[in-house]
Amino acid sequence: MPRHPLSTTVKFLKLHDDVELPERKSDDAAGMDIRAYLPNGKVGIPPMERKIINTGFKMEMDPGYEAQIRPRSGLAIKEGVTVVNSPGTIDSDYRGEVKVGLLNTSSTTYLLEPGTRIAQMVIAAVPRVSVQVVDELSETKRGEGGLGSTGKA
After folding, report:
1. How far apart are CA 134 and CA 117, in angstroms?
2. I want to staple 29 with a disulfide (CB 3.0 to 4.6 A). Which of 15, 24, 35, 93 is the partner?
3. Reduced to 3 states, what is the DSSP secondary structure of residue 73?
4. How far apart are CA 24 and CA 109, in angstroms?
5. How far apart are the first and last CA of the chain?
6. Tens of pLDDT, residue by residue, the chain (153 residues)
7. How far apart, in whole angstroms, are the C-alpha atoms of residue 80 and residue 104?
8. Residues contacting residue 29 through CB under 8 Å, at least 6 positions apart
9. CA gap 53, 49 in Å, rounded
């Protein structure tokens, strides 16, 4: 029996010979680390500013899957650099270069080096959902309580 019950194949196309493709850093890691492709050298991200960072690869997934682009916890906690639209979604029919929008939430300019691990990518199944318009919804114990209504942490 395979080690993991769910599997699919993702195809990667390098746009340059020196591109480092996404990779898992441990066997059971949910995400694959994505590296910055910066052929012209370092890039600075000033405080509270956003930059779109190239990865140097394109990808192909089976229909019914998406790639979620998420922050790397170490980069976010240690440097204050996170993914702007987290999680970003790459649809299965997209064939352009994968790019990552980064936001520097710190008070100092972050100097991004070529090959830095900037995000992680999780491949996830996406169910096809049908929409049904109704006159009322079923009742639950919680009801319409939201934003902290379930208690304190």
Report:
1. 46
2. 24
3. helix
4. 28
5. 40
6. 456 667 889 999 999 999 999 999 888 889 999 999 999 999 999 999 999 999 999 999 999 999 999 999 999 999 999 999 989 999 999 999 999 999 999 999 999 999 999 999 999 999 999 999 999 999 998 888 777 666 666
7. 6
8. none
9. 13
